[in-house]
Amino acid sequence: MKLIKTLLASTAALAFSTSAFATDLEVTHWWTSGGEAAAVAEFAKAFNEGGDKWVDGAIAGSGGVARPIIISRIIGGDPMGATQLNHGRQAEELVEAGLMLDLTDIAEKEGWKDVVNPVRLLNACTLDGKVYCVPVNIHSPQWIWLSHAAYEKAGVPVPANWSEYVASAPKLREAGVVPLAMGQQSWQTQLAFDTLLVAVGGTELFTNILSNKDAAAAGSAEATKVFDAFATARELAQGANVQDWNQATNMVITGKAGGQIMGDWAQGEFQVANQVAGKDYTCLPGLGVNDIIATGGDAFYFPKTDDPEITAAQKRMASSMIRKDVQVAFNLKKGSLPIRGDVDLSAANDCMKKGLKILAAGNVLPDGVNVLSADTAGQIQDLMSEFFNNTNITVADAQSRYVDIIKNAD
Question: 402 is in which domain, residue-wise?
């Protein structure tokens, strides 16, 4: 779908624009689950209120499905007006090729550096001193979500940490409950591994491997413990038989699975299902072992154009996404944390409050997407998916291949 410009002569449009033109912008993203759709509607509402029009270009599937389509369109000369990507290195080559709009002027005018917390999120949008994206949330993958209904059926207490969770698995099986819900997409299995890397291996090991690209750390005995835990997770997930992450979340919501290792965006699905944190489900950051989160998340980039009206509309959209009221409305529905440190989130649920407390304490790590190239991240995803779905691959084999990837990582 190509960008469409519509002439509107209303006073409302004039109030939000420097010209008498309001602009339709196609926006591509991969937010298609119930909770995600409710959240992205808040961005569309804010943009439309200014007289412009958000033309939704949702791409079904995960980011792994959407990103190649998005990048292909931009490179092929059929760009959208705005697109979701993860801030970090995913758009690095597009920026270097001069295909993305420079947002430095509005970032400086609106003081993004002073309000984005942690500032590393804005740094991940910055290349050679220029800002090329607007970070919109903080998503942390280090969580496990536990079904109270499933544990009630199994007759055992809801676990407080990873060890208790593993110990509860036999009782869950006896009750006809799958211990671990896991979808078949490769990013889900990588997410589970990285979460275990923090919980079982610790923050130093996580940093040494992913940030420092330390192959010796990847081959260490401490890392072997992480792979052993990952092999245990592989056993716990037998019988899940779902593809998408939100289908796995639904297994937890309906009590068909005891738990799911998934990012805090899972909160949106629980909210849509009218479930209450602490009553219907429990969330454990760091798998209940380490109260720490990795600060990844989503950002919006704006493909460069020669049309000044489109450029102006793109900057209006970027500005609206980081506005205080929009940050609150969007993130409360998305389940993520706001990128602004100056907003009121008194309406946050118990799980979001846990994340806010960890963030306030500064117990944060960079997300893998911020420190690994797309090629390296893809190799790790492929390895973790292959290991998780093929029980013939041993821990030793998988770790050896992991070491080789880290050794050659960029």
Answer: 143-294+364-407
